[in-house]
Amino acid sequence: MSTIISVGIDIGTSTTQVIFSRITMDNTAGYFTAPRISIVAKDVFFRSEVYFTPLKTMALIDGDAVRDIVAEEFRKAGIRPSDVDTGAVIITGESARKENAALVLEKLSDFAGEFVVSTAGPDLESIIAGKGSGAYQYSIDNDCAVINLDVGGGTTNIVSFYAGEVTGKGCFDIGGRLIRLDRDGTVRSISPAAQRIIEEQKLPLRVGERATDEQLLRLTDRMAELLAEALGLKEESTLLHKIQTPNSSWLGQTHTASRICFSGGVADCMEQSRAGTADFLRFGDIGLYLGRSIRTNPLLAAARQVPAHETIRATVVGAGTYTTSLSGSTISYSDGIFPVKNVPALKLSYQEQQEFLDKGGESLYQKCRWFLEQNDTENLLLAMPGKLDPTYAEIKHMAKCIVDAMMRALPPEAPVIVVVEQDIAKALGNAMKQEAGNQRRVAAIDSIKIDVNDFVDIGRPLMDGLVVPVVVKTLLFG
Description:
alpha/beta; six-stranded mixed sheet
């Protein structure tokens, strides 16, 4: 049994948070079978305060202030950066679209150790929040479909799970901090997405003027209706497409929205808005108005609500406990090849894989060269389906095609790394080592799912070298 420490740092539109957790791994196979290393426990042992994300201007995050927050929480937890083995620093919602988002993550690099992700992107955030809220595990435990809506300050991240599988994901610019107000109701700022809704509803909301409860509720009632549209509970309007978050997927519906889970800061506002004496301007935004509108929307209320294990902390808990997965236990790699970080993945379809196997390594070489030029990078990781129960000759041929193509395409110092979906990594990796000889470090791992446009981090081997920790992520900044 082995334990590692993971950190989650979430820099969101409204809040910034830090958590630390222990992730325990063990060999869950029997004595007379091949080892199968699995994550057997995840324990969050430290949760920071919830801070308002510090801003310099509406377009700039205060990176130094964020760094000070994170440093203080490390100190309170009694954790040094060198103690951390894995985790994620994730910048979410409208924060990911701030002008200096990437620079802010760089300021946190010395807290990241050698294997903590710096990441952004609405699709990944949707999945992380859905896992952190408990919706993912609920779908597994009950073998059912669950849709998680993580309603934050700037965006609502939506993910649908069916028995633990992601069946849809999307994100919309609906959140509790899209309009900021003074204590007397004077509007301080209006986001572009909120302005589109205001114009559709013909509301007299303007910066510098006082808003009434009725006006703000009309706005947030429409936001709740748009969420119902996104879930397929109501016919889609043109406006829904106009407020889709850039770089997010269109949700789509493969299962009905019969079970819904709400997380994010606005999920807490849903409950707080029940009180007859609720101070709707206490946070200086429309969060409590939006919470009330979601809670009272008849279409959303008709669905069965699954209670969230985490609400405002769903994303940071997901970042700290669910971003790391383990490779299979039958993998092959050269000594010293790991860790690697931020390697863009060239994902091949089954047809593309078959093409290079039929025609030799030239077509794969051309594909690699195209990918490197398109992504302005000198490195890549090859992700492919692999073959079910291949013969020795097929493994040798696959290894030769891969090594020949990637050694030609990549600079001399770049390793040849392949991730296959089928459980053939050890045989394929050993064959790749024979093909490469001493000219190149190589690795083949399996049991990891990778999609188009993903980046991959692979950490140092664990459990006496049987597995490697892997994080699959996106790196998108608006």
